[in-house]
Every structure is written in structure tokens, then in C-alpha cells.
Design brief:
The active site is at 149, 173, 244, 247, 270, 279 (o-(3'-phospho-dna)-tyrosine intermediate). One of its GO terms (cellular component) is cytoplasm. Forms a cyclic heterotetrameric complex composed of two molecules of XerC and two molecules of XerD. This is Tyrosine recombinase XerC. There is one protein chain. Helices cover 53% and strands 4% of the residues. The chain is built from 13 helices and three strands, in the order αααααααβββαααααα.
């Protein structure tokens, strides 16, 4: 935890005790929830004062990804909102990034997943006449093809891509490397995007970074959020969508296609198989078809 975050946490705890009159147990609970956010901030190289709306949404996606239940998510979000209200009142920040973020629905355990038809519609909806059209299409294709975290996508290097072998090397959480297969479709979109990338005035230090903004610098995580969100809205996909949705969709489609859970675990970079087991949530129609096709009582001899 950096000193700034630590000092803000101490100030917030004092506020809860002196201004709100909360008990030590209640303060400990609020601070415990805040620790989860601070850990996320550290892993993503962010700062508490500069967090944006999209960062909070990504934090909630991370909570879901590690298997925290909606009731606990709602409690954690309540604590985080309280913290940012405090920062706003005390004028540490000008705007509250938690504003207008809905509390997770209790009883809903699973994130949204796109259908294959929706993925195809999304990928095919970009206006390739726009300067960023080819880049954004490649971003979506790579995220769906490889199941990357947003931080892994924005840090993906050209030298990490092995087109002939059809895999990429990803540096995940804790600087742990893993090898992930990449589809021909994604490689094709990267190749087409590289023609546009060559026209950019690339900033020093980002020469090897794959996805760049118009100024030749590395894309931010927030920018990826808006690209996904706005494009889904443009092609009428009426679901609660974030970049993490493509990661969930990647894993779900692999599982539904018969992939081994251990293989999915390795490709996602999960340390524990229990984290990957969140994807064992095949929809009712898929389960119904599986029973009709494979259960002895339904097989016609």
C-alpha cells in the first residue's frame, strides 16, 4: 500500500470514529472493504484520488471474477461509496467515481456473457473508414480470442506475439508469464491494424506496445472500457457490458465447446481452479440440449 492511500485510509477511519460515531468493529469492516480496493489499485498501478467510474466497474468485475458473492459485493461497494463521499466532502477529489454505480443485485451470481451471434455482430460493427476503426476491431478480436484482462491487453507488446506458432506471451498478475493461443482471426486483425499503426508518431518508450492511441501513446484501461461499452450500444447489445465481459465470454464459450477446465484455468492465468469454476454456468438451453443428446433415456436406439 502506498503512503498516500495509507494516509487517506487513516483519515477516513478517524472520520468514521469522530464524525459518524461508529464502533471499532464497524470501522474495521469499512477499512477491510477499503483494503480490497487499495489492493486492486496497487495491482493496476492506479491511485485512489485519480480513480474513474470505469475503474470502479472494473474493480467490481474483479470481485466477481474471484468468486465474491453479490451480497458481499454490495456490502463492499457500500463501503467504497462511503469512502469516496468522504473524499469529495473533504475536497481531496472533485468528482465521485462511484456516483451512479448500481449496487449488484442480490441473488445474481453470474456475470453477463455474450452469445456467439453477439460477438460476431460486435466485431463486424466497426466503421473501418475511421482512423481508430481497424484498431478497435483488433482489440475486440484479441480480447475475445485470448480472454485477456484489460491491464494485460494495454500492456501487450508486439514482441510478445508469435504469429507462426499462433500464441502470445502474457505477463499477468504478479508478473507471472503464461502462453495463450491466439486465433487466426485475431492475428489477421492485428496484421491489418499494423498498417494503420505505422502512420502514427509513436512516443518514446511505446515503440513495442501493440495498441496505441492517436497520439502514439499507450491506451488507458478506461479507454478500453469506453470502446467496448460504446460499440455494444451501437450494435444494440442490451446487456451490462464491460471489457471483462469478453473475458467471461471467452471462458464460457471454451467450456461449452468442451474445453478442459484446467486448460481454461491456465489460459486465464488463475492460480486456483476454484476461481475458474465460476465459468461452469452453462445456460439452461445448453444443458437441456446436452441432456437430450447424451442421457440414456433420451437416446433413440
Amino acid at each position: 500500500m502506498d503512503n498516500t492511500a495509507n494516509n487517506l485510509k487513516k483519515s477516513y477511519a478517524s472520520y468514521l470514529r469522530l464524525e459518524c460515531g461508529l464502533s471499532d468493529n464497524s470501522i474495521a469492516g469499512y477499512c477491510d472493504d477499503l483494503d480490497k480496493l487499495i489492493k486492486f489499485i496497487g495491482e493496476e498501478n492506479l491511485t485512489a484520488e485519480k480513480l474513474e467510474h470505469a475503474d470502479i466497474l472494473q474493480f467490481l468485475c474483479t470481485l466477481r471474477d474471484i468468486g465474491i458473492q453479490p451480497r458481499s459485493q454490495a456490502r463492499i461497494l457500500s463501503g467504497i461509496k462511503s469512502f469516496y463521499r468522504y473524499l469529495t466532502v473533504e475536497e481531496y477529489i472533485k468528482s465521485d467515481p462511484t456516483k451512479n454505480i448500481d449496487t449488484p443485485k442480490i441473488g445474481r451470481h453470474l456475470p453477463e456473457v455474450l452469445t456467439l451471434e453477439e460477438v460476431d455482430r460486435l466485431v463486424g460493427s466497426f466503421d473501418l473508414s475511421l482512423p481508430e476503426g481497424r484498431r478497435n476491431k483488433a482489440i475486440i478480436e484479441v480480447m475475445y480470442s485470448c480472454g485477456l484482462r484489460v491491464s494485460e491487453l494495454v500492456n501487450l507488446k508486439i514482441s510478445d506475439i508469435y504469429p507462426k506458432e499462433e500464441f502470445i506471451v502474457i505477463k499477468g498478475k504478479g508478473d507471472k508469464q503464461r502462453i495463450v493461443p491466439i486465433s487466426q482471426s485475431a492475428l489477421k486483425e492485428i496484421s491489418l491494424y499494423m498498417h494503420d499503426r505505422k502512420q502514427l508518431n509513436i512516443k518514446k518508450g511505446d515503440e513495442d506496445t501493440l495498441f496505441l492511441n492517436r497520439r502514439g501513446g499507450r491506451l488507458s484501461r478506461v479507454m478500453i472500457f469506453y470502446i467496448v461499452k460504446e460499440q455494444c450500444a451501437a450494435c444494440n447489445i442490451n446487456k451490462t457490458i464491460s471489457p471483462h465481459t469478453l473475458r467471461h465470454t471467452f471462458a464460457t464459450h471454451l467450456l461449452e465447446g468442451g474445453a478442459n477446465l484446467r486448460a481454461i484455468q491456465q489460459m486465464l492465468g488463475h492460480e486456483s481452479i476454484t476461481t475458474t469454476e465460476i465459468y461452469v454456468h452453462l445456460d439452461k438451453e445448453y444443458l437441456r440440449q446436452e441432456i437430450l443428446l447424451h442421457h440414456p433415456r433420451n437416446i433413440k436406439h
